[in-house]
Specification:
heterodimer; A: mainly beta; seven-stranded mixed beta sheet; 11 strands; B: mainly beta; six-stranded mixed beta sheet; 0% helix
Amino acid sequence: DTAVSQTPKYLVTQMGNDKSIKCEQNLGHDTMYWYKQDSKKFLKIMFSYNNKELIINETVPNRFSPKSPDKAHLNLHINSLELGDSAVYFCASSQESHGTGHEQYFGPGTRLTVT
Amino acid sequence: KQEVTQIPAALSVPEGENLVLNCSFTDSAIYNLQWFRQDPGKGLTSLLLIQSSQREQTSGRLNASLDKSSGRSTLYIAASQPGDSATYLCAVLYGNNRLAFGKGNQVVVIP
């Protein structure tokens, strides 16, 4: 059974388009994340949601908008796509930490290519 | 600034040798440290998680140590195999569930 799943796995689109990436976790976790891995393979957090509430919002352009319809889903919507948005986007989830550290589980990634 | 550094960036070893991968972090106020494995074009697989109160964790041929005061962690892989070829990522968890990643150690085990 897949713990953290993402769709689509690959996404190729043109500049200026709007696209969404979906993420679902079946682990019963309260916290979900979006990470971006750039062309140099460096992973950096973008957003974190806990029980549908935005916790972390790094300096990400306003064109990126996360949406959490329930605590098992965290979708990422990107408006007006730019060439620099090309990257692999990873979703992750963990238990709510309450000051202690819980393991984060990652999805398989979505490779976004903007042409 | 919370920075995580992994040295060396890339290494090749003959099969059977032990692997030693190093990770250092600038801010020692961590909750935990995770080692991940990433195969080309794939997602991240969690290998070991060390809580800030722990000194080491072991799983099979893998052993990870943590020295929080000096801001260092080391991942040891005993008797390396070609299947161990991958990129190994060190990630440090800070407050508010903020996970900071290093750039990875790219490992090639030569048969």
